[in-house]
Amino acid sequence: MRVNTAWEKLWQIHEGSALKQFVLSPDYNVLRDPQLVESGIAALLEQAVRGEPVLIPAVHYDVAALDGRGPARWVTARAHPIKDEAGNVFEVLLMHEDITDKLEAENALRMREERFRSLVMATSQIVWSNTPDGRVDEDSPSWRAFTGQTYEEWREFGWLEAVHPDDRDATRRLWLACVASKSLFETRYRLRRADGAYRWTEVRGVPIVDATGSIREWIGTNTDIHETVMAEAELAQRLEREQRNAALLAKVAHAARKLQTVLWDGDIAEVLVSEVRDILQVHQAVVSITEGANWSQAINAVSLSDKYAPYRAYAESTDGSGIYAEVCRTNQPLRLTQQQLEAHPQWKGFGRHAAAHPPIRGWLAVPLIDRTGKNIGLIQASDKIEGEFSAEDEAILVQLASIAANGFENARLYQSLQEQDRRKDEFLAMLAHELRNPLAPIAAASEMLKLGTASEERIRRSSEVIGRQVRHLTSLIDDLLDVSRVTRGLIELDRALLDPMALVASAVEQSQPLMTARGHSFAIEGDANGARVVGDANRLVQVIANLLNNAAKYTPNGGAIVLTVARDGDVLAISVRDNGTGIDASLLPRIFDLFTQAERTPDRAQGGLGIGLALVKTIVSLHDGQVSAHSGGPGAGSVFTVTLKAA
């Protein structure tokens, strides 16, 4: 019947148009409009026509079906019947409300929410939302699926119970601070998975702000980054290990350079303990050198921190018992915790000085081994500043021990070379003197003979002088040739089955003139009891004669020399004992070394080149025998003993 202007604008059916004329004509009836009939709206309008007010739900109406040009719109309506005084309906008021924009916005929002939820369910991230004050209110299926928490367990601040205990307090403080400052929440924490395992997650929470600047809600995600964090941690640990190893290698290389430049045993030991303490970070480091055959050790160097300052004067040797000797005996490293150390059966054996020994707290010891595999001592470290000794510490100390052992050997070789060089110089000076001595009488005798006026007696004496001095020179040269053969390994033995007493007789015959000239009494004691030896007769006679001559030279005129022959089972011993000048204790260990000679007396009565005993030792060794020297010291005489295996 009638429409208002808003209706015309809504449907774009304006005054004067054919469509408006059609709608207002008897040809159009809303109760028969196909769209309204199909949607069920016509039935609701019939109720209004019958006098019942009706609320019409949203309907989508398109005027194009009536050949209109207006857009299709979503509308809701109320149909209100208007009645006369008799209560009869004479018209129906239909009020439309255009809800198209509202529905489209709601549909768009719903589609976005559906896409968002689909994305959340499809992603591996945990997605959550919180209230403006930071509490959990809305459910998060992805959180529940990951953690296994129920909604009741997770809501409010219950989500913190799923965070690792070590990360929980810091996470709570940071979250509340971000909520208070309305700032971005970014952190990492370990989140408990439904199976109980904790996983590292990267967390990001963003405040959603409305038009007034107030926070409407928080939206956040947790991303599982456990493998990445573990890889980063492993990489960091590997880098730290490599840096630490590089630093250690640099220290070991520095220590090696220092050890290689030191030429004296004591200096090597001092450098070694200092470097060991620095590299291994310990309070104690000790270098001990093995002495003798009973595995006792002399403490060569000790380095102690201030913690052990009262013990810095301790330098007592061990007696060959206990754990020090155990390492030297086995030639194997020993790494012990304090508990293992105290449980070790050998750990307290420090000899009579045990009470004064510094306390040991954990122990690492490595033997010093020379090139032949023989033990020469040990390096030990105790009381590590942090933790226990590790396999890495042991490997480092083994390396240092190898370098140090070479250093000790090189130092000893250097010292030996220096000593040999000194003795060589002394020998050359002595050789020159010994060679010059016969030349003076030879020259004098030859001058006498050149005059041609000497008597027969004087000629005879001059000839004897020349002959005697030539024999002396020949003896010196023979000794030098023997030394040359020894040093080049050219001595060859003409072996035969020999009577020891015959050898003794020949040697005595050679040495008797010298002993007689010096007025010595001489005696032979004992007997070989029928024993025989296999060897070179000339060389064995040379050995015995050398010992007799040596005794004669170093025994003052009128002294006594005794040669003793004794058999004990299959061992034959020949000893030469005198009551002469004796041998100083410092000289005794090297008495058989080449060019070694006791200090000469002013009258040089002893003579010789100092090579006789070296020849004796070499010849006896070639016969698989041994030679030894004993003396009570200067003025107490000496005894030289040769032992050979009886055939």
Largest sheet: 5 strands, antiparallel
Shape: rod-shaped
Helix content: 40-55%
Q: Order of strands side by side in the largest beta sheet?
A: 9-8-12-11-10
What fold name goes in the CATH topology slot of the largest domain?
Beta-Lactamase
As residue ranges, the low-confidence spans are 600-606
State the separation between the terminal residues, measured CA to CA: 156 Å
Question: CATH superfamily membership of the largest domain, which one?
Answer: GAF domain
Q: Which class best fits the helix and strand makeup?
A: alpha+beta
Would you identify the CATH architecture of the largest domain? Answer: 2-Layer Sandwich
Q: How many E-type strands?
A: 19
Our estimate of the beta-strand percent is: 15-25%
CATH top level of the largest domain? Alpha Beta
Average predicted local confidence, pLDDT: 85
Keywords:
647 residues; alpha+beta; Beta-Lactamase; 5-stranded antiparallel beta sheet; 19 strands; 23% strand; rod-shaped
Could you characterize what this model shows?
The protein is an alpha+beta fold. The protein folds into 5 domains: 5-104, PAS domain (Beta-Lactamase, 2-Layer Sandwich), CATH 3.30.450; 123-224, Beta-Lactamase; 262-416, GAF domain (Beta-Lactamase, 2-Layer Sandwich), CATH 3.30.450; 421-457; 491-645, Histidine kinase-like ATPase, C-terminal domain (Heat Shock Protein 90, 2-Layer Sandwich). It is built from 17 helices and 19 strands. The strands form 5 sheets. The protein has a 5-stranded antiparallel β-sheet, with helices on both faces. The protein has a 5-stranded mixed β-sheet with strand order 14-16-17-19-18. The chain has a 4-stranded antiparallel β-sheet with strand order 4-7-6-5. The longest helix has 61 residues, at 391-451. It is rod-shaped, with a radius of gyration of 58 Å. The chain starts with a helix and ends with a strand. Mean pLDDT is 85; it is low at 600-606.
